[in-house]
Amino acid sequence: MSAPFVASPALQRLAGISHGFFGRRGGVSTGDFASLNVSETGGDKPDRVRANRAEAASCLGFAPDALVTLNQVHSNRVLTLEGRPAPGERLEADAVVTAVPGLALGILTADCAPVLLADAEAGVIGAAHAGWKGAAMRALGARADRIVATIGPTISLDNYEVGPDFVDSLLAGHRDAANRVATPAGGREHFDLPGFVFDQLHDAGVALAHDTGLCTYADARRYFSHRRATHEGTTTGRQISIIGRR
Question: CA-CA distance, 22 to 36, in Å (whole number)?
């Protein structure tokens, strides 16, 4: 049985583009990593991680060596791919774009927001970790008014307690983001990460931004969640979101 994934209606309408937001089900890993863990750094067995990545790529019709992932470092670096990376090459960035057919771009998350983007007319696709905008896609010939973007499963407002220091830092750089902060009665501040990313996409001028509305923290059976694992004193894997061009 192939691994289940969520598809975006907005991206499904685009000719020549395949995509999927995968969760934790459908792989071969065990224990805390059960079962579709795709992280190479969390302590899972490498052969199982490779098998899981191959399974996810195969579900979308791509060979394992067509899948490109990043060493994500919570930066604002965007990588433009002009060809297939060399085997074993480590690409350090938090977003990647390409106009090369036959490649599948993957983003790994366990609470952060994966964003998949495409301008089907220009043949340009992108995948991003959290709140990247879209300037690099435009450099490859994409137009903001044709870009379709979808935010995948991420931690939701109800489950993302951040506290006042986080809010002060957020508002120092994004004064208009106060509407994405809420404080429950008697509690600490919470942050609406997918809402904030949606606002960033809208401000970048994308034609259509869609949010899957799925929470990684709230659904332990379907998704890995770093924050939930921290609260439970366990470890966790990473799920993958993939977009590819035929």
Answer: 8
Q: Give pLDDT tens digits for 153-208.
A: 999 999 999 999 999 999 998 999 999 999 999 999 999 999 999 999 999 899 99
What's the CA gap between 112 and 70, in Å, rounded?
15
Spatial CB neighbours of 214, under 8 Å, sequence gap ≥ 6:
6, 21, 152, 153, 154, 222, 223
Model-level pTM? 0.96
Question: pLDDT value at position 132?
Answer: 43
